[in-house]
Amino acid sequence: MGGDRKKMRLCCTQQEEDFWLGEPLYEEDKSVGFHRMWFLEVLARKTDFKISLQSKEGYYTKRIHWSDFHYEKKLRAYIIHRELLSNEIVLDFDAPTYEKNVSNFKDIYPFLKRKGFVPYIYFSGNKGLHVHFYLTFKPLVKELEMKIQEDIVNHFRKAATFEKMFTRFIAKKLEWLYTHFSIDGNLNHTNHLIRSEGSLNKLGFKTFLGHTPEDIPIIAPIYNIENKSYPKFPFHDYTNSLDDIKYSALTDLVKLCKEFVKVKKIGKKEPKYLSLKDFFQKPRVNSEKPCIKFLESQEFGNIGEGRKRALFVLASHYNDDPQQVAKLKEWNEVVLNNHLSSFEIESSAKSTTGKVGCRYIKELLGSIGYGHICKGCSK
């Protein structure tokens, strides 16, 4: 595998360099790599997100913080996938055709506009639309009761933690849109990555279209190396401030925040003991491993990564269970939506020895951004 990875094309070649890097000038029609890097540098001032590179052959690198990534690789990478910012929501329109995705967005735009969402519309480079929203929570400072503000600060301690959880709460309110308008709902509830602005897809670069349906061209705008056309970005590359971003100030932000506080029971202290029996009783040890519980959860199924390795782990976990294959097939149906074939499941069940080390499981969880779940098994 090590030899194969060396052949993977993660960065542009010298032949492509003139187009890819362009002149290092602050011009709108120059340097794909430079514009993308500058744009992501500005976003990283909000949240130091993690990224993963993808080669033209489909190989993904491990995740690394944007701020720790080498300057030259930032410039030359073909495809960068990034985490969402703590205040960012993305709707990934994934209908079979570009025309249908445009139609679906136009159908829900009046609702989004009425609610205060300001969209950043991108053509994915193939057929889809990626619609980004950057929420602002500053109105809460003036409009939310001080007692609730104090409860939020004392509960979360860090602004980014509050923003991330509150943003996901708001994103969940939009779930009714997903099935009706062919929207991929995985992005906003997991650590799933999104292809970054200015990165390649099958046909061309992910490029900015505008903020309203009127800005979207009728024909899919293909920008790529072959036709020597450059992708567009939302604001000029000499900006140094997050203030250049058009934020979504939601019309019902205070109401949503109060609901969020209530649902999460923020500021309410629950009684630790409900009776003397509970007071004197020793705490029970949970024999179910957190890693297994997570791999069997819908949260893992929504990630869309590491499914074959998870099958290997679960097949080993149920090695001595007479219902091993049946449980694996049920997991495949309920959690993975039948992603794996019966042959893969039965082969894995036959080949397992029932022994999988914590290190393997921890590496699996770490590769999908959930390494914190594995604390090591108690002796």
Descriptive overview:
This protein is an alpha+beta fold and 379 residues long. It folds into two domains: 9-270, DNA primase, PRIM domain (Alpha-Beta Complex); 290-373, no CATH class. It is 41% helix and 9% strand. The chain is built from 17 helices and nine strands. The chain has helices spanning 2-7, 14-21, 32-44, 71-76, 98-115, 139-143, 146-156, 159-172, 175-180, 253-263, 276-280, 290-295, 298-303, 307-317, 324-334, 342-351, 358-367, and strands at 50-54, 64-65, 79-82, 88-93, 120-123, 129-134, 183-184, 194-195, 207-210. The strands form two sheets. The chain has a five-stranded antiparallel beta sheet. A four-stranded antiparallel beta sheet has the order 2-1-3-8, with no helix packed on it. A hairpin with a 5-residue loop joins strand 5 and strand 6. Helix 14 (307-317) packs across helix 16 and helix 15 packs across helix 16 (342-351). The longest helix is centred in the N-terminal third of the chain and has 18 residues, at 98-115. The protein starts with a helix and ends in a 12-residue tail after the last helix. The model is unreliable at 1-6 and 283-287 (pLDDT under 50).
